[in-house]
Design brief:
The structure holds 2 protein chains of 2 kinds. Chain A is α+β, with helices and mostly antiparallel strands. Chain A is 34% helix and 16% strand. In chain A, strands 2, 3, 4, 5, 10 and 14 form a 6-stranded mixed β-sheet that branches. Chain A has a 5-stranded antiparallel β-sheet with strand order 12-11-18-17-16, sandwiched between helices. In chain A, helix 10 runs antiparallel to helix 21 and helix 14 packs parallel to helix 20. Chain A is elongated, with a radius of gyration of 33 Å. The N and C termini of chain A lie far apart (127 Å). Chain B is mainly alpha-helical. Chain B has 2 domains: 332 residues, no CATH class; 74 residues, no CATH class. Helices cover 68% and strands 3% of the residues of chain B. Chain B has 15 helices and 3 strands. In chain B, a hairpin with a 2-residue loop joins strand 1 and strand 2. Classes of the chains: A alpha+beta, B mainly alpha. At the A-B interface, helix 1 and helix 2 of A face helix 7, helix 12, helix 13 and helix 14 of B.
Chain lengths: 654, 412
């Protein structure tokens, strides 16, 4: 009986063995949750941030590149500092700062590295690195900082900063993580996806305290970081920098385009700032300063400011009228009975003369003929139909819509059509006499400087354009850009209709609305002035031009806010830029000095009462620009613009 | 045969201790004396010397000096209370330089020998209360001393002698009572007490009604009533026991066993991490030295009490199967050998060895896979530690020596 107990005992042994084995079978084979947990437990993904793409100008000069900077990390447990005072001197730290950094690091983790000093420059780091051999517990991580060697194009290039909470929440595919950098404006934002490259992922093994213990499976599952693609732009940095100097102490824009390709040669938004100040570790301080500046340097005016085109719009009116056959190059009109004044000019002028002297009554008649160029008897109905046709024709010039430049925040502007006035006045309650100010580019029209530069390019090309764009190559020069920038757009006007208008533009420069000094010795420049009425202060000065007349190389639009007449502020700027671009030097030193010394910074007293309307009240503000108030950044010289070389025949657009 | 099983266990243990302390960044050698693996090699070497000594010593020695050895171990247990060094809150180690020795490990040997010697006396009958009490006394003395030195885990091992006593004729009622008490204890922690009361009463009632009329003597009915009351008392006493007798860490270990998810980063950490490590081994494991959980300190005490995690992670189910299989084979082998012994002393001793090893294996592997509460006792032959390797080797080889006399090997 008792002998048999050995069987009981043996079967208990075997039973327990079986129970354990089945439990092990369950844990190891059936239930894979433990296996998954183990990976997240000990295997950690380490993200490698790739280099961001660099940006070049058309001649291969760097606009943006990355400077290596060094972040210094400290592992409190490993720290060995024989002489704290000497160490603080080396690091340029106060003893109290040192203590508080170390206390934070210790609180975070004694064994994991925490940030000690961030963004040390190469020079600082080289100095510290030699001395660091005497200390233990410090290690560095190389990172990079955007650097702008040309100190220009802040607005067009944009800036990079840490991704915001909102952006993190709104991203469609989760790519960014807290602390990542992202392009926030300009090209940096537009081309974010190609500039950022592809993050690499490294799997490392870590122990229970998070201390890294080497790569996992010898890196078999790691993906290498791929550096971001470089951008090759059509910008000419030299011209850009020169334009910056010309636009100092002015508010406004310069946009120059290569007419044959649509590539943007320079894009100035004034006032501007040195883009480097937004890439340093003082980002937030500097950003706040810029955001408070009343001249709003953070707005990219070439695409995001709206103005009325003023007389520059007459170019479009003229070629459309010729194409429609409502006038001929030889048409002449009387000034009698026109509710718009004209400045003195010889009588009996034809279309070219009207462009040359920017004759308002002439274009009053042109527009009138365009609107009534149909068989409707009722003038209200005829105006509505005429305006619709006109709207369609003008739209082809890119007015009233986004051109599609490769920048964020481009504004559509406004090109009023029949619907637009129906809403304001009611159907059949408006006609030509209600809206005639459109004929000279006033009224409800709104454009931005980029669009006017494009109009200059259309005039230069005699009827076609490529969508203006900054980037001409992604990765390699001349490759990889959006095919829409390689598509030629016709504006529906025969080339022959441009000649009389271009003739008028040349005459305007040589002895018309443009001040005499703005002529370029040895280069035929064709231009048109404009004065955009501004109820809040001095009128805005506008000039569009291209040069040379035959086979043009550059088309340009210059806007100087509060510059009064197109001929006296904007035209000299354009002239100098064209000269510099075509000759690579400026012979017209007098004009150069004159325009650099000019200041058109608006001085705004406490908000004014709106001036009584002179004309049918436009439903929108003259310019959608924010009211600008005087402030400190540059010494403001309040001098009245004085034409250097006044001519008896000089008039302004309106 | 037994020898081969033993060697297999020790070598596997050594390699796994190496794997457990191995770190990819400092690729230490298997023989580096500063690591646990290197020390384990040294312990193995000294163990071989011990084994040779045991094999050389006349088998009569153990028989004759059983009580003397028992007395010495008791003495060392007393001594360690006074002169031992404090490790993790329990004063149970003698320190000699870098090495430590735990007398509790050797107390098992002494107690096993003493019990064998006592039961070997002619006329001892475990059905008799007097002999039962004597045995209980022999077991209880070292057990109490070990509790005094705060090593509750090692003390529990002394419960394993019940296997041997059962074989030697201890009435089946004792292990039965033990099983019932443990079962009730666990049930109380899981099931609300009221249900248990009802169930016990129902069980009592059913037993009463199923008992044929002619057996319903006063004695039997009384037995039913007494056992029911005792069970109720146990159930009622569990709370008191858990909350007031056990120390906080022990309470936690029991709670964690019932519900490991309750506190995965605190008290449940060991068990959860151990299960993750073993579970991540899958069928064939991550490969020798490739384990991540055990190597990077997610599992604490990996080279000692949680050595089985290293096996489970690096060698998977296959490795676990081999280890569990080895132990089952070893245990069966010892039991079968014990049955063949001509002297009662040798047989009793063999069963005691089997019981001790069985208890260690059951608790140790059980705790790593979440079937047993965490009790800090080593896995025989595998865990790092000189005391445990020595004591298990001595235990086993004394038995082999006794056995060798039977077959005529190693005799002198």
């Amino acid at each position: 009986m008792i002998e048999n107990r050995k069987y009981i005992i043996i079967s208990v042994f075997c039973l327990i063995g079986l129970v354990y084995l089945s439990r092990l079978f369950y844990l190891q084979i059936l239930d894979d949750s433990y296996s998954l947990e183990s990976s997240s437990n000990s295997i950690k993904r380490v993200i490698e941030i790739p280099y961001r793409g660099q940006i070049y100008d058309r001649n291969g000069k760097l606009i943006v590149f990355n400077t290596p900077v060094y972040d210094l990390y400290v592992t409190p447990k490993k720290v060995y500092i024989p002489d704290t005072a000497a160490f603080c001197r080396l690091m340029n730290l106060e003893r109290t700062e040192f203590d508080s950094i170390m206390a934070n690091a210790k609180a975070y983790s004694p064994v994991k590295p925490s940030l000690f000093l961030r963004q040390l420059s190469k020079e600082d780091f080289a100095r510290i690195q030699d001395a660091l051999v005497d200390y233990r517990g410090f290690e560095h991580v190389t990172s990079s900082m955007r650097t702008y060697p040309a100190h220009t194009m802040a607005n067009a290039v944009g800036y990079v900063s840490e991704v915001s909470k909102k952006q993190l929440d709104e991203q469609e595919t989760p790519y960014y993580r807290q602390g990542d950098y992202i392009g926030q404006s300009g090209l940096e934002k537009q081309y974010e996806s190609v500039l950022r490259g592809r993050r690499g992922i490294k799997f490392v093994m870590q122990n229970v305290r998070g201390v890294v213990k080497g790569s996992w499976k010898n890196g078999a599952f790691d993906t290498l970081a791929v550096a971001g693609a470089n951008l090759y732009t059509g910008i000419d940095v030299e011209i850009q920098q020169y334009a910056d100097t010309l636009m100092q102490n002015k508010v406004g824009s310069v946009v120059a385009i290569e007419p044959a390709t649509g590539q943007i040669l320079c894009m100035v938004s004034a006032p501007t700032y040195d883009p480097n100040i937004l890439s340093s570790r003082y980002f937030s301080k500097n950003y706040a300063k810029l955001a408070r500046n009343p001249y709003k340097p953070l707005i990219n005016r070439p695409v995001s400011a709206s103005y009325r085109p003023g007389s520059t719009f007459k170019l479009i009116q003229a070629v459309i009228a010729l194409q429609d056959g409502v006038i001929s190059p030889a048409s002449a009109f009387s000034h009698a009975g026109v509710p718009m004044k004209c400045h003195g000019h010889p009588g009996g002028i034809h279309l070219d003369g009207a462009v040359q002297y920017s004759c308002n009554p002439y274009f009053y008649h042109v527009f009138r003929r365009m609107l009534y160029n149909n068989e409707e008897r009722n003038t209200f109905v005829a105006s509505a139909r005429g305006l619709e046709d006109w709207h369609e024709r003008v739209s082809k010039f890119g007015i009233g819509q986004k051109l599609g430049v490769d920048l964020p925040s481009e504004l559509k502007g406004n090109l009023p059509g029949a619907d637009y006035y129906d809403k304001i006045y009611g159907e059949k309650r408006w006609k030509f006499s209600t809206i005639y100010s459109l004929s000279i580019g006033e009224g409800e029209l709104l454009i931005n400087p980029l669009k006017m530069a494009n109009v200059a390019a259309i005039m230069a090309n005699r009827g076609w354009f490529y969508t203006p764009h900054l980037v001409s190559g992604i990765g390699k020069p001349g490759q990889g850009i959006d095919p829409k920038y390689l598509e030629k757009h016709e504006v529906g006007i025969d080339a022959k209709h441009f000649e009389p208008v271009v003739e008028g533009m040349q005459m305007a420069v040589e002895h018309g609305t443009v001040m005499g000094l703005a002529r370029i010795p040895g280069i035929v420049m064709c231009g048109k002035t404009g004065t955009s009425q501004n109820r809040k202060g001095d009128d805005h000065s506008i000039f569009v031009a291209f040069a040379p007349r035959e086979n043009p190389k550059i088309a340009i639009a210059v806007f100087v806010e509060n510059g009064k007449w197109g001929g006296s502020a904007a035209a000299p700027v354009a002239s100098l830029i064209i000269e510099r671009y075509l000759k690579r030097r400026v012979d017209n030193k007098r004009l150069d000095e004159y325009i650099k010394s000019k200041s058109f910074l608006p001085v705004i007293e406490p908000p004014q009462k709106p001036a009584p309307p002179k004309k049918p009240e436009p439903p929108k503000d003259t310019a959608r620009k924010p009211m600008i108030v005087r402030s400190q950044p540059r010494p403001v010289l309040r001098t009245e613009p004085q034409p250097l070389n006044p001519k008896p025949g000089q008039t302004s657009g309106n | 045969m037994t020898l081969m099983l033993y060697i297999a266990c020790v070598l596997m243990g050594w390699l796994n201790v190496y794997a457990a302390v191995y770190s990819p960044e400092s690729q230490t050698s298997l023989f580096d004396m500063s690591t646990n693996a290197g020390k384990q090699l040294m312990w193995i070497g000294t163990t071989v010397l011990l084994i040779i000594a045991i094999l050389v010593i006349n088998y009569r020695f153990w028989d004759t000096f059983a009580f003397v050895i028992y007395g010495l171990t008791i003495l060392s247990l007393l001594l360690v209370l006074v002169a031992g060094s404090n490790v993790n809150g329990s004063r149970s180690w003698f320190k000699f330089g870098a090495f430590s020795i735990q007398p509790a490990e050797f107390a098992k040997l002494g107690t096993a020998l003493a019990l064998a010697r006592y039961i070997d006396y002619p006329g001892v009958n475990l059905n008799k209360l007097k002999d039962q009490l004597w045995c209980a006394g022999i077991i209880a003395l070292p057990a109490v001393l070990i509790i005094a030195s705060n090593e509750t885990g090692s003390m529990l091992v002394f419960a394993s002698f019940i296997i041997m006593l059962y074989r030697e004729g201890l009435p089946g009622i004792y292990p039965l009572i033990g099983i019932v008490v443990v079962t009730l204890f666990i049930l109380t922690l899981i099931v609300p007490k009221l249900y248990l009361f009802i169930a016990i009463l129902a069980l009592g009632g059913i037993t009463f009604f199923l008992t044929p009329h002619y057996q319903r003597s006063v004695q039997n009915v009384l037995a039913i009533v007494v056992s029911a009351v005792a069970m109720i008392a146990i159930v009622a006493g569990v709370d008191f026991f858990v909350n007031d007798v056990l120390q906080p860490h022990q309470q936690n270990r029991i709670r964690v066993l019932i519900n490991p998810a309750a506190d995965p980063l605190g008290a449940g950490w060991n068990v959860t991490q151990a299960k993750i490590a073993i579970g991540s081994g899958r069928m064939s494991g991550k490969g020798f030295l490739e384990g991540t959980q055990t190597k990077f300190d997610f599992v604490p005490e990996q080279s000692t009490d949680f050595i089985f995690c290293t096996i489970g992670e690096e060698h998977g189910f296959v490795g676990s199967l081999i280890v569990v299989g080895l132990f089952v084979m070893l245990l069966c082998r010892i039991v079968l050998l014990a049955e063949k012994q001509r002297t009662r002393f040798a047989r009793v001793y063999g069963y005691a060895v089997a019981g001790i090893i069985f208890f260690h294996v059951m608790i140790n592997i059980g705790m790593t896979i979440g079937l047993m509460p965490v009790i800090g006792i080593p896995l025989p032959f595998f865990s790092y530690g000189g005391s445990s390797l020595w004591s298990f080797s001595i235990l086993l080889f004394i038995f082999l020596k006794l056995d060798s006399r039977r077959v005529g090997m190693f005799t002198r």
